[in-house]
């Protein structure tokens, strides 16, 4: 997908990569993007449901704790409805905080809900990271076709 282009003085330090996406590459990219978006949306919804179930089925329901757990994820809904690669990138940064919070809980309590939450955060992180990249390539392809 990339080609080397050298500056006029032909020194190796000035070699610049140019991205070339063919129509055949675009077909594969579109399939990957569609699948990545679906995995992201499903794991996003599953994470919201799992966080809500964890709060509701806990010892006592605390609305403030539930809001602290869910609101950072709800911020990304507009960007997930109308896909933008920056939304997926920022979602990855926020998911790192969830991961940092969940791993010590998982290692301390070994509860099934912490396993599920960690798995959902990990799947969503990987899917959002790849979808962000594929969406960048797709937008580049569409802009180069005009």
Automatic annotation (TrEMBL):
The lineage of its organism: Bacteria, Pseudomonadati, Pseudomonadota, Gammaproteobacteria, Cellvibrionales. The keyword Transmembrane applies. Keywords: Membrane, Transmembrane, Transmembrane helix. The chain crosses the membrane at residues 39-57, 63-81, 88-107, 113-135. The keyword Transmembrane applies. Coiled coil: none annotated. Pfam families: DUF2069. It comes from the Bacteria. This is DUF2069 domain-containing protein.
